[in-house]
Amino acid sequence: MSLEGNANRGPGRSNRRGAAGILALAILSTLLYLWLASLGDLRARIHILLPVHGVLILILAGAWWTIRRSPTRALRLALGAALLFRVVSAFGEPALSDDIYRYVWDGRVQMQGVHPYRHAPDDPTLVALRDVDWERINHKEIHTIYPPLSQVLFVGLSIVGAGVRGFKLAAGLLDFGVVLALAYLLRVLSLPRDRVILYAWNPLAILETAGSGHVEPAGVALVVLAAAWTVADRPFLSAAGLAGGVHIKLLPIVLVPGQIRRWPVRATLVFLAAVVALALPYALTGPAVGGGLFDYAGRWQRNGFFFPAILRAFEAVDLAPWLKETIASLQSRWGEGVFPWDWLYRHVWPPYLARATAAALAFTWIAIVALRGRLDAARESLMVLGGVLLLSPTLHPWYVLWILPFAAALFSRGWLLLAALVPLAYLGGDGDVPRWARGVEFIPAVSLMAWDTFRSRLSRRGSIRS
Question: What average pLDDT does range 201-218 have in this prediction?
Answer without folding.
Answer: 98
